[in-house]
Amino acid sequence: MGGLPPGFRVQPSAMQCRLPLRPNHGGWTTKLPQLGLIDRYLMRSIAAPLFGTLVIAAMLLVLDKMLRLFQYVVDAGGPVSVVWRMLANLLPEYLALGIPIGLMLGILLAFRKLALSSELDALRGIGIGYGRLLRIPYAYTVPLAIINLFIVGYLEPYTHYRYEGLRFDLKSGALGAAIKVGEFNQLGKHLTLRIDRSEKKGTLLHGIFVQNEDGKGMTIAATAERGRFLATDDPDKILFRLTKGRLVQDSPKFATPRTLAFDSYDLPISLPVIDQFRRRAAGETDELYLHELWRLGYGGGAPAHAQRMTAEAHFNFRMVEVMMMFMLPLLAVALAVPPKRSSSGLGIFVSILIVVAYHKVNQYADQAAAHGRLNPTLGLWVPLVLLSVLIIWMYHVLAHRPGGQPIGALERFFSVIGKRIRGMMTRAEGSISPA
Fold first, then answer.
1. What residues are paired with 208 via a beta bridge?
2. Residue 240: beta bridge partners?
3. What pLDDT digit, counting tens, does each position of 49-86 carry?
4. Which residue among 146, 172, 198 closes a domain?
5. What's the per-residue H, E or C state across 82-105?
6. Residue range(s) defining the domain that contains residue 233
7. What is the distance between the alpha carbons of residues 120 and 25, in angstroms, rounded to a whole number?
8. pTM higher than 0.85 for the full model?
């Protein structure tokens, strides 16, 4: 009755120790020792599909473009090695779209795995809500968004300029010209060459026809059994050494053409003058850096209204593409959890459809705003706001409504359609089976 003995303390009972276990409201306990382990587990679960999807998407896009680039380079008569340089300059463009898709699929597949194995229910049962679980997805999102901002703001414009420079060099012959066997090759404006056979990696040519014209009207046409190109001290001239052939020389100064049979003849050839490629962003707004677009669009640096509208459109397009990445974790989580007793992958399809469709809408708005048919700010930011509201609602339904399913109606619709299709196929098989 006089109280507890000195040094004696009553431990609180389990009923007295209250933890905010509210899994449907995003709450979490701050002193659980398992949180570090859960973070590492989520980090590993997201990393594999994220980087795997990024690599696969980049490879598919590169392979699709590589076949067309090979054909383009061969038709232009350039060296095959330039294909790899052109592909390297296209990679930033592919990464700008591949990074958001990889981030979303990485998060979605990780949470889908947790949901299908009932680990998500176990985590929520010990008080770890969706708000706590989103910490690791956003730890991936923030650095990837910064990287993507650098890509679309600075790296992609520079590599676009380099890619166009390679295309210009191919057309002008600055990268060298491939001589096609059995065809008449036009090398520059004054030289026509045809060969029947090539040996020793093109250094020895057989069955040669060559016609060369100079600026004064003199024409030299020759046939030879063999020939090879030789360098000279003059970088603007090369020698075409012909062996065992016949030459015809004509000029306005000659009364009749001159002919010559020779065992060896050195034909000097002037190399064509190669034009210099334009400077970066000369008439190409796609090649402007992010701060240059801001200066032209909003800083008063544009000399004309049309150029200002184009700069504003491109600036807002790049910004909304990056800002959309901060909504992807919420979208991925909302679409990752299938209904109970279901393993439907509809959420994966819907997520990819949303991201790709949003990218196409932005591209259309960018082009329309650049041509003055749409306000750049409204045309590009309003779709982002609308989609963000939709994503937040979908996440709210999943995280804060007991048993909520954002795409439950779609799940039921496709389930009914699938059952009907399977029923029709079963009846069709029964009708054609022998009695």
1. 195, 224
2. 229, 267
3. 888 888 888 888 888 888 888 888 877 767 788 889 99
4. 172
5. HHHHHHHHHHHHHHHHHHHHHHHH
6. 185-270
7. 15
8. no
